[in-house]
Amino acid sequence: MALYDITVKDNKNKDVSLSEYKGKVLLIVNTATGCGFTPQYEGLQKLYDKYKDKGFEILDFPCNQFAGQAPGSDHDINEFCTLRYKTTFPRFKKIDVNGKNESPLYTYLKEQKHSFLNHRIKWNFAKFLVDRNGNVVERFAPTDKPESLDAKVSALL
């Protein structure tokens, strides 16, 4: 299986094939609206604004698995992010990133780039950087701020 073989659900529950993103550099992030890292939405949007016209996309996957920090509906989460942080990048249906109900996308991402200590996603705002050919090139911890990824995104563009 390759990244572009995976289909996910958007925040309106419609199927989206990741093949729609062929040729783009992707930053795939599991997010939450009530997390200490939630202000990273601001940095993510700045990164998106800077590079979206050069073939960069951020794919936002809300996740409620960590301390229940994304409790709202997909609609509520989208409204919060667009009103509070003015986000414009694609947001998808809330998913699990670990465990028996984990999204096939996250199974794939973790198989490609697992941390040296652990295969699991440890918290909200873990990030995966994907090149234009669908290769997962790097995994970043939740503590890695979006602005610290600028040079790596730019190099792939």
Keywords, separated by commas or semicolons:
single chain, 157 residues, alpha+beta, Glutaredoxin, 4-stranded mixed sheet, two-stranded antiparallel ribbon, 4 helices, 25% helix, globular
General description of the model:
It is a single chain. With 157 residues, this protein is α+β, with helices and mostly antiparallel strands. It has one domain: Glutaredoxin (3-Layer(aba) Sandwich). Strands 4-3-5-6 form a four-stranded mixed sheet, with helices on one face. A two-stranded antiparallel sheet has the order 1-2. It is globular.
Give the helices and strands as they follow along the chain: EEEHEHHEEH
Biggest sheet record: 4 strands, mixed
Q: What best-fitting shape do the alpha-carbon axes yield?
A: globular
- Percent range for helical residues? 10-25%
Give the CA-CA distance, first to last residue. Answer: 24 Å
Instruction: Give me the CATH architecture, please.
Output: 3-Layer(aba) Sandwich
The gyration radius over C-alpha positions equals: 14 Å
Overall structural domain count? 1
SS class: alpha+beta
CATH 4th-level superfamily? Glutaredoxin
Task: Give a count of the beta strands, DSSP E runs of length 2 or more.
Answer: 6
Instruction: For the largest sheet, list the strands in their spatial order.
Output: 4-3-5-6
